[in-house]
């Protein structure tokens, strides 16, 4: 009995961390508009009020992640700083893999954008963009999220094998975004990033990829020539299809162990609560719209 409890300890810590961080993330999301309205008279500008609100939220998120690390992850032997080094001789393969991954990530966003358009779901929230918000989206958020999901949590779940670690960290990464427009693509992008972080034993490649992904998403609203956009779409889709065909055995192998994943999932009450809470909040926000 003690051995079984010890076996599930890391996964329960993962669920506890996700619930802890998820609750604060949803509270901050709910308070974002009231905070902006509160700061607007002070700054006499809605843009600067939004910028200050984003800065405050970024500081709170970093602090909450740190507290979550101290409560749930450090007792399981995790180091605060994940490994950043890429082994010699693997740098060139890593760069080539990242280039392919970037193309595939764009394909995921293109497919998702088309689905959102078909289902009449806003694929992105349209807000005024300032220096602080741009820096947060393009630089700060990618570093924080990669450190948490591909650093701490991937290592935490590594004892269960690559498939479990990659799939569940991608699941947590998708759910924490808290809305349909981002959660679905974030899950698939999390699978790609998780695979790269696991394969090269470093979060540096995924930080760079995450920065580039968010940067491209940020400038996506700019008017680009239709031919270029269409070419990128077909190239991205072709790369994604080729990758799936070449790696089909690795990609679909986890389906043979679906029962093990379900068993793991139901051994974390906190993860179940986090999942239900997030789905309810997403549903409520959709009804409100």
Describe the structure in your own words.
The protein is an all-alpha fold and about 290 residues long. The chain has one domain. It has 12 helices and no strands. The chain starts with a helix and ends with a helix.
Topology of this protein?
Layout: H1 2-7, H2 9-43, H3 46-73, H4 91-119, H5 131-156, H6 162-175, H7 180-200, H8 204-218, H9 226-246, H10 248-252, H11 258-265, H12 269-288
Helix pairs in contact: 2-3, 2-12, 3-5, 4-7, 4-8, 4-9, 5-6, 5-7, 5-8, 6-7, 7-8
Short descriptors:
mainly alpha, 79% helix, globular
Q: Helix content range of the residues, please?
A: over 70%
- If you compute it from the alpha carbons, what radius of gyration comes out, rounded to the nearest whole angstrom? 19 Å
What class, by secondary structure content? mainly alpha
Q: What's the total number of strands?
A: 0
Helical stretch tally: 12
| Overall tally of domains | 1
Question: Major β-sheet, in short?
Answer: none
Write down the overall geometry.
globular
Provide the β-strand percentage band.
Answer: under 5%
The residue ranges in which pLDDT falls below 50 over 5 or more consecutive positions are: 222-228
- Mean pLDDT score: 81
Distance between the termini: 48 Å
What letter string, H or E per element, gives the SSE order?
A: HHHHHHHHHHHH
Short description:
With 289 residues, the protein is an all-alpha fold. It has helices at 2-7, 9-43, 46-73, 91-119, 131-156, 162-175, 180-200, 204-218, 226-246, 248-252, 258-265, 269-288. The chain has one domain.
